[in-house]
Each structure stands twice: as structure tokens, then as C-alpha cells.
């Protein structure tokens, strides 16, 4: 007896089998597409974060950086705009290796630290000074937090601003800014000498001479002297004792140059800092007294007791002379460079100043013109 319904049923089942295979295949293709998209997006994001330094800004390291790797300590920060507070920064920067011999090839660098409100109008002169020595220096810029520099990407000043705060002349906030610069520069283990500069500073000699002179120096160039007058001891507050006695009170130029040991001593100080912050104000001008006094107490034998930055006080007043374009002549620059006498590593030297201030933006054209002939670079 024939069963008329069996043949149509088999045909119906046969026609449904290809459809059951097509549905999983579409899902698989979709999932594969999503996986490729996610992986591609992750790789692009990682590349972009490395390119723009986003990982440094967010405070994390790439997954390839092993905490136990020596490269993590050898390599300078990729991006200077970190998210650390001042307390965290100073703690991190104060970590000092106790073994003096480095287990890797360390090329000592000079850290040029610019303390400025905003632009660096003389930076084209500094670019010529630095050119060809990229492995021998670092640059750090502390400006007003609201200022955003617009250096070209080809400039050594590009991306060299550090997290900053408002600082005022003569107040402790100025010393805080200088400590902030030092702490950021100390994060690069290769930085050995640290020069504090302003937007009005210029180099007086070529880079090779500056680098050699500073790296061979046995002292830090901090001006520190005992002024018995009203602008020296007259600013001393007896409540700073016993940490600071009046016989230990010192005055000096704000624009210092220090080695790594002195830089660490400055940022880790918790003995003298509170006394100066509380009792050296408002007309004490703490930036002229804090570092000279503290360092002369802590490490007097390591100070040259002079600055390597030349200024002209002959015009009188609370600030040194500011020079304009008409002042810049070959005779003027040679007068700054020549006829000097000082001690360098305990021996007489005619090279006393490596930098000078205060130079207005109008001096740039003449400085660029005269630099190759008089200053030895450009």
C-alpha cells in the first residue's frame, strides 16, 4: 500500500538542510568581522597613544614595559605632562640609586630648565645653540598653566612643557616652580647638570664648551654670600632659628646651575622649606635666600659661590638691566665674554659666564647675526 505523504516529506526535509548551514556561517562571518574590527581598533589606539604620549598623561605604561626591566628606569618619560601631584612627583624624583656605578652606558646630559610666564621669544637662538647635540641635553619649560606653547614639531622645545602652577616673583611659589622643574628633570636618569634659565637668557658660548665645562665642574654654581646690609641679614627673621641662625643666612642669584646631588638635596628638603615658607615673607624675597642658605648649610664645600649667568646691575634698581636691539653689538658681546676672572675647580679661569640675561625679543635679529662670529655657533 502506497504512502503518498512520505515522498513530499523527504523532499521538504532535503530542501531545509542547506538553510540550516547558511545561518551559522553568517553568524561566524559577523563575529569574525567584529573580532578583526576590535583588534584593529586596539592596535590603532595603542599607536596613537604612543604617538601623542597619552599613556603618560593618564599615568599608565604600555603592556610591553615589564616592571622588572631595567629599561623602565633608563628611559626618560615619554610625555612630560603627567598626572602626578607635586608631592608624588618629588617623592618619585627623590629615589636615588645607592650604587654609583651605572650598569649601562650612561651619556650625561645637561637639563636646560626654562622658568617663564609664557613664550620663549629667543628660542631660535637656542635652537642654533643646541643643533647637532640632541643626545646631550634635555629641555623643560615651566610656564603659566594657561599658556600653551606653539613650537613647531621640528623644534627641540616642542612638547617640553611640564605640569605647572602660578608662581609670583619673590614668593615661595617661585621656589616651588624651581623645585618642580628640578623634580621633572631628575626623572631622566641621564641628566647630570641642571641650569635654571628665563625667557630673557641667551647662551654666550657654543654647546660643546658649555657641556664640557659643566660636566667637568666639581662644584655647583650657586651664588651664596653673607650680606650684612638691610637687603641681606636685614631680611632674616629670628623665628627661623634653630634651623637657620643669622650667621648662616645667605643671599644669592635666583638663576643657579647645580649637579645631580645638589638637585636632589633641593627637592627632598623638609627641614628648611617650612621655615622659609612661613617666615620669609612678604618682603623677604625668598627666591634670593632659600636655596643659597639651605645649600650653604647642607653642602658648603660643593658650591662655587658664584653664578654662571651674567647680568648687569650697574644701572641700579631692584632688577638688572634689560637690553634691546640697539645694545647688541660685537663690542658689547665681547665685553661680556672677555676680561673676566674666577675660580674653576680651584684654578683661575677666564671663562666665568656661560649664559647671560636680560635680553628683550628685539635683540634676536642681531644675536642671530653675530652668534657665528662672536658666540661660536649658528
UniProtKB/TrEMBL annotation:
Keyword Glycoprotein: yes
Any one GO MF annotation of this record: glycosyltransferase activity
Keyword vocabulary terms for this entry: Glycoprotein, Glycosyltransferase, Membrane, Transferase, Transmembrane, Transmembrane helix
Membrane topology type: Single-pass type II membrane protein
Top-level taxonomic group: Eukaryota
Major subcellular site: membrane
Gene Ontology cellular component terms for the protein in this record: membrane
Transmembrane segments: 27-48
Compartments it resides in: Membrane
InterPro entries named among the record's database cross-references: BC10-like (IPR044174), Glyco_trans_14 (IPR003406)
Signal peptide limits: none
Annotated protein name in UniProt: Uncharacterized protein
Native source organism of the sequence: Spirodela intermedia (Intermediate duckweed)
